[in-house]
Amino acid sequence: MNNKMKTLIDEASLHARIADIATEIDEYYLGQWWYMRTQEPVVIIGILTGAMFFMADLVRKLSIRVELDFIRVSTYPGKTTIAKKPKIITQPTRSLHNAHVLLLDDILDTGKTINMVRENLELQSTESIMTAVLLRKTGKALTGVTPGFVGFDIPDDFVIGYGLDYNGRYREMPYVAVWSKDGH
Questions:
Q1: Are 148 and 131 in contact (CB under 8 A)?
Q2: Architecture of domain 12-154
Q3: Which alpha helices (DSSP H) does the chain contain, by range?
Q4: Around 122, how many Cα atoms within 13 Å sit in the side-chain half-sphere?
Q5: pLDDT 10s digits, 166-184
Q6: Fewest CB atoms less than 10 Å from the CB: which of 74, 85, 99, 149?
Q7: Average pLDDT of 128-156?
C-alpha cells in the first residue's frame, strides 16, 4: 500500500461480512414459496468488472441453488473518480424470462447503475429481482434505490480494492482502501 491509500475494510472483515450476507440471502430465498416448491435456481448476475471478487466469494458460501451470469457496465471510464452515465457494454447470455434474479454490484453510489441495469433486466420478463451490494455510500443513492442486502455502509470517499479500481488498477487488493489523489 502506498501513501495515497488508507485501509477502510480489511480482508478478514470482508470475508466475515460476506459470510453473513450469504446467510441472509439463503434465509430470504429458502423462505420464498417458489423456491421451497421448485428448488429453481436463483440467477445471480454480477455487474462486471467490480463485482467479480464479491460474487466469487459470496456464491461459494451460499447453500441455495444458483446459476451465474454477468452484465458488463461502464461507469468510471479512464482516470475519473466521478461516476459518468452508466452504459451497458455486454448483456447477460442466459434467458432471464421468468427467472428469479439476484443482481450483485460492488458499490452503490448514486444508484444510477443499479437502476439502469434493473430496468434492463425487467424488460427481459424476469419474475423477480433482488439486489445485493458489498458497499453502500450513505445518503447518496437516488430515492427508491434500496438494495435487499448490503455489506458495509461507507463514507462518500473514492474507494479501491477488492474489485474496485482506479484507472484499471488496484482491483486485486484483498481489502478496501480509500484513494486520495493528494496523498491524504
A1: yes
A2: 3-Layer(aba) Sandwich (3.40)
A3: 11-30, 33-38, 52-59, 112-122
A4: 9
A5: 888 999 999 999 987 654 4
A6: 85
A7: 89
